[in-house]
Amino acid sequence: MINIAIMGFGTVGSGVAEVLTKNHDSIARKCGEDIRIKYILDLRDFPDSPFADRVIKDFELIEKDDDIKVVVECLGGLHPSYEFVKRCLLSGKSVSTSNKELIAEKGDELLQIAKDNNLNLLFEASVGGGIPIIRPLDQCLAANEVYEIAGILNGTTNFIMTKMIREQMPFEQALKLAQELGYAERDPSADVDGDDACRKICILASLAFGRHVFPSQCYTEGISKITLEDVEYAAQIGGVIKLIGRCKKLPDGRVTLMVAPTIVMRSCQLANVEDVFNAILVRGDAIGDVVFYGRGAGKLPTASAVVADVMDCVKHLNRRKYLFWEKGAPDYVADYREWETSLYVRASSFDAEAAFEKAKEIFGEDIRRLHREAEPAGELAFVTGKDTEIVLMQRMRIYENSGCSVIGCIRVCDL
Ligand code: HSE
User: Fold this and answer.
1) What superfamily in CATH does domain 2-130+299-315 come from?
2) Ligand 1 contacts CB of residue 159 (under 6 A)
3) What is the best residue among 133, 160, 185 to mutate for testing ligand 1's pocket, by most ligand atoms within 8 Å of CB?
4) Which end of the chain has fewer CB atoms surrounding its CB within 10 Å, N or C?
5) Beta carbon of 124 within 6 Å of any ligand 1 atom
6) Residue nearest to atom 7 of ligand 1 (CA)
7) How many other C-beta atoms lie within 10 A of the C-beta of residue 269?
8) Angle between helices 171-180 and 155-167 (to 10 degrees)
9) Given the residues 106, 200, 249, 321, the one annotated as active site
10) Distances, alpha carbon 410 to alpha carbons 217, 259, 295, 359, in Å
11) What is the DSSP string of 282-347?
12) Catalytic residue list contains 200
């Protein structure tokens, strides 16, 4: 019998208890041990829960109990998760966590502590919810030089964009629905502003390229400025707007990454990923393209990944699984603006025809004008040719200084 503790009894933590209970026998058969939940750490009481008698409020009970071999961390946020996970590792306990903020900010340090103490720190659930991606990237694709990853990494924003695209549902209404369904973060601005996806692409970049990438090194833009008009114009070029997290390895060994709303062509697999589903496209030199797809958020899908990590920890109690990356460095991440892209631009002007002629002068003759139904006079939308973002933004400033007011612009994906 192996005793474990769960820290945090919210959506994911209670899902972990539910899966461990419901599938107890098959889990025991697969890992050769009975797994028993001894403690549940939470500041709240759960008098109606079947686990009510195991709820504790004092972390030290877990830390000092040598009987606890594996700890599940589902508290979310950086504090006190970081301190608690560190203390668990220092007191000889392996950890399974769903906490992307923790791994994105402190992964290098915590992985080093796990390594020094011959323990496992596993975090499959931190990216893509229930989708297996961490283990496949680390193990099944280990023979590859992975050189690019692009993904829809946030279920809430994908749900919102799907509602906006399919049902022309206003943003606020779609967000409220996502919250009711338990997809959103405690503070949904982490979803909407792209921070959640940023943490996830940082974890994938750290793992794929072997060196820690911090969220502060990743250019991040959310979806809150996307309008139903943008959705309509994107459809005109055969695309849909998705929040895409992307990272690349450069020939000089550095990496570049960003999270931003992006127009993805319908022909790309990521375009057809809808609702709360996530998908992650990995490009490796031997495998080519491989796409991982599934439920990226929600109680049981996320618990599925956490429990699998608990089982892996139980199966490797005195052995380390090799899951590790080196410390980060400020000059390791290149300027995202060196990335080449096309831009969709929406602008307004007293005279849309003259503004389009001006756009051709500044961005080049190859820009393509877009139209939508019931387009108001003075509105103008176009797609530029491809160039580095540094060059395109310089042109954008010249365009704005020429009297055209840019309402918004979105990168057009070349995946
Ligand atoms: N809020 C996150 C999402 C949960 O919507 O994807 C899973 O990380």
Assistant:
1) NAD(P)-binding Rossmann-like Domain (3.40.50.720)
2) no
3) 185
4) N
5) no
6) 297
7) 13
8) 130
9) 200
10) 21, 12, 26, 16
11) EEETTTEEEEEEEE-SSHHHHHHHHHHHHHHHHHTTTS------B---GGGB--GGGSEEEEEEEE
12) yes
Q: 5: which 2 tokens?
A: 């503790």
135-295 sits in which CATH class?
A: alpha beta
Q: Decide if domain 339-412 falls under CATH 3.40.1280.
A: no
Amino acid identity of residue 371, one-letter, is: H
Cβ of 154 closer than 6 Å to ligand 1, yes or no, is yes
Contacts of residue 358, defined as CB under 8 A and 6 or more positions apart, other chains included, come to: 399, 402, 404
- Helix count (H) and strand count (E) of the chain? 14, 17
Residues of the chain with CATH 3.30.70: 339-412
Would you write out the chain's pLDDT as a tens digit for each of its 415 residues? 999 999 999 999 999 999 999 999 999 999 999 999 999 999 999 999 999 999 999 999 999 999 999 999 999 999 999 999 999 999 999 999 999 999 999 999 999 999 999 999 999 999 999 999 999 999 999 999 999 999 999 999 999 999 999 999 989 999 999 999 888 887 899 999 999 999 999 999 999 999 999 999 999 999 999 999 999 999 999 999 999 999 999 999 999 999 999 999 999 999 999 999 999 999 999 999 999 999 988 899 999 999 999 999 999 998 888 899 999 999 999 999 999 999 999 999 999 999 999 999 999 999 999 999 989 999 999 999 999 999 999 999 999 999 899 999 999 988 8
End-to-end CA distance of the chain: 48
